[in-house]
Write a structure and sequence with these properties.
There is one protein chain. Helix 4 links the parallel strand 4 and strand 5. The chain is 51% helix and 12% strand. With 213 residues, the chain is α/β, with parallel strands linked by helices. Strands 2-1-3-4-5 form a five-stranded parallel beta sheet, sandwiched between helices. It is globular and about 55 Å long. Helix 7 packs across helix 9 and helix 8 packs across helix 9.
Length: 213
């Protein structure tokens, strides 16, 4: 089974390569960004596994991820991140059976087990995420703590700026702004820019008159 490592962190890729080297019939390739990953997947005729850091890779949102799953039905996706919201994971696993979920804090034996499951095209949800999903829902707080940078980017999102436009405006990289964007969505418990905008309006971060100009 061929594995595609879609993770920009060198240390993570090195660790995954080490684990895969001990799995029979497992080979791997790397993808630096979404365009390269899509191009490589287009040439695959056999089932493959993509190990994806959704938070750091240049996937815009869960809707785009689900579209990729539809376009490439032979791919089994291992979403491998530091942190994921319960709502995100629930929607992911409810939408398509070819998604596994693994947190980067998972022990080595669990990471290996997940990759073995993925090799057999079977879903795997790590223990920490399973416990998080089964835990009683937390009482929402009135004030969700956002950093100054996150608040500024949330305002830009609410004003309709794209991730690329925000990056240019802030003299930052696309990846940096995209990471902030996903952290904002995670903290607010929202799944898209429309829901984030509604929060920004309710919180008074964006003036209603300014929003409708």
């Amino acid at each position: 089974m061929k594995f595609f490592l879609a993770d920009p962190q060198d240390i993570t890729r090195a660790g995954l390569m080490h684990v895969l080297s001990g799995i029979d019939e497992a080979t791997y390739r790397q993808a630096e960004d979404k365009a390269e990953l899509v191009e490589q997947l287009r040439h695959q005729t056999e089932p493959v596994v993509v190990v994806l850091d959704y938070t750091l890779f240049d996937i815009n949102d869960i809707d785009e991820l689900l579209i990729l799953a539809e376009v490439f039905p032979k791919v089994h996706w291992v979403v491998f991140c530091i942190d994921l919201t319960n709502d995100f994971v629930r929607r992911l696993v409810a939408s398509a059976p070819q998604f596994s979920v693994l947190l980067k804090e998972s022990p080595l034996h669990e990471i290996r087990q997940c990759l073995l499951y993925a090799q057999r095209r079977q879903r795997f949800i790590c223990q920490r995420m399973t416990e998080q999903l089964l835990a009683p829902a937390a009482v929402p707080e009135d004030n969700i703590p956002l950093t100054k940078t996150e608040t500024e980017i949330l305002k830009d999102i609410a004003l309709g700026l794209t991730t690329k436009e925000i990056a240019e405006r802030r003299f930052s990289s696309f990846h940096t702004v995209n990471t902030h964007r996903k952290n904002i969505f995670r903290k607010l418990g929202v799944n898209n820019a429309h829901e984030a905008t509604r929060y920004a309006l309710r919180a008074g971060l964006v003036d209603t008159a300014e929003y409708y100009i």
